[in-house]
Design goal:
The chain has 400 residues and is mostly helical. The chain has a single domain, classed as MFS general substrate transporter like domains (Growth Hormone, Chain: A, Up-down Bundle), CATH 1.20.1250.20. 80% of the residues lie in helices and 0% in strands. The protein has 17 helices and no strands. Helix 4 packs antiparallel against helix 16 and helix 10 packs antiparallel against helix 14. The C terminus is likely disordered.
């Protein structure tokens, strides 16, 4: 098999992963500029992301369903162009309503990526854990770039440019993707893997448990991503001298450094049984979140990064377990359901962050409660059936 189609699939899947996390993360920094520009309180502005973040989850099931029945390539093209156009709409907004309309478009088109791009990647990967780990680095890089570049562009050219420039870049990527797809250089096929089919009972048990763990993990991840810029601004007062770019850069460094750990997580998922890798990653998050609730200064930075590291490290094992236990003909739909829970938790997280900070002016209780929730996810994960490790074969299915 010519490796180029598979490499292009993995390349565009990685770029798409960067974009989805960039476009769903950068508003957490953008809101710091809007506080000053529009003279509105933080909790009111951050709450504008509630409906858009709901759409990121709610749109995942129909996106996966359409991809199963139509085309992963077609849905990826819609993703690139749609999310870019929506970001430009945000940059042109004059009112809160206009901003919510643009943000809602970002949320709706962002819903496409995970239930389409991740199964598409897995079908074209030989070493699935390694491929997912590499892909995960781009997701973390998306958060990092979203935080860093947004803060920098705001300080240099204003918040409108921070919406418009990445939007134009995504549209250009979508056009390139369509051209290569029509030229037959990007396909839908993938690498053949030999796996022992899971029993129906194990499928049902694994899916129900994963729904619980993915929901809780999603709330923890989205709460940290939403709160981190304000958390650093509140507890690291010396950042004020560096402006919005300083806050965005620091959060970006945390996510970028932590993202590289997904390669380690992917290696572990390829080499060891999936369940122990997943369960241990969830357990370690509990004391880390308690530490974030209590600490400031350099220790706070360390434990925030460690939480992001652990959140990222379990993702390859989680995706491989879902792929392992999902019926083959409904894999996109199954990933869509996963991301309803993973990203459907975002509006809960946004409201949770806004409520806690609005009532207390701090984030102590936010992270104390998140630590208890992480303990619940660990307890649920113990009930997962054994999923084994990754099994692969060199045989290949030609790209369509």
């Amino acid at each position: 098999m010519n490796p180029r189609p598979a490499l292009l699939v993995q390349g565009f899947s990685a770029v798409g992963h960067l974009y989805i996390h960039l476009f769903t993360a950068f508003y957490a920094v953008m809101v710091l500029a809007l506080e000053r520009e529009w003279q509105l309180p933080y909790h009111e502005l951050i709450a504008l992301w509630t409906i858009p973040s709901f759409l990121v989850g709610a749109g995942a099931v129909p996106a996966g369903w359409i991809a199963d029945r139509w085309s992963a390539r077609g849905m990826m093209a819609v993703f690139f162009i749609g999310i870019g156009a929506s970001s430009i709409v945000c940059g042109l907004a004059e009112t809160k309503l206009g901003l919510v309309v643009g943000l809602s478009g970002i949320g709706l088109f962002a819903a496409i990526y995970h239930p389409v791009g991740i199964p598409w990647l897995v079908r074209n990967a030989v070493a699935r854990g390694k491929a997912l780990g590499f892909n995960g680095i781009f997701g973390s890089a998306g958060v990092a770039v979203g935080m860093f570049a947004t803060g920098l562009i705001i300080d240099l050219a204003g918040w409108r440019a921070a919406f418009i420039l990445p939007g134009a870049l995504s549209i250009a990527t979508g056009i390139a993707f369509v051209v290569l797809s029509r030229g037959g250089r990007i396909g839908e096929g993938g690498i053949a893997h030999r796996e022992t089919p899971a029993s129906r009972g194990d499928m049902v048990r694994a899916f129900l448990v994963l729904l619980v763990t993915m929901l809780i993990s999603g709330i923890v991840f989205q709460s940290m991503q939403t709160a981190a810029p304000k958390l650093f601004e509140d507890r690291l007062p010396w950042l004020a001298e560096l402006g919005t770019a300083g806050v965005g850069t620091l959060v970006g460094i945390v996510y970028l450094a932590a993202g590289a750990i997904q390669l380690v997580g992917g290696h572990l998922a390829d080499r060891y049984p999936l369940k122990p890798v997943y369960v241990l990653g969830l357990l370690l998050q509990v004391p880390v979140l308690f530490a974030v609730a209590l600490l400031g200064s350099v220790p706070l930075l360390f434990f925030v990064m460690l939480n992001v590291v652990l959140s990222n490290a379990v993702l390859p094992a989680e995706s491989m377990m879902l792929h392992r236990f999902a019926p083959e003909k409904h894999r996109n739909l199954s990933f869509g359901i996963k991301y309803v829970f993973a990203f459907g938790s975002a509006p809960l997280a946004v409201q949770f962050v806004a409520l806690v900070h609005g009532d207390t002016g701090e984030f102590y209780w936010l992270f104390m409660i998140l630590a208890l929730m992480a303990a619940g996810a660990f307890a649920a994960a113990i009930l997962l059936p054994s999923a084994g490790g990754s099994t692969r074969a060199p045989a290949a299915v030609p790209a369509e």
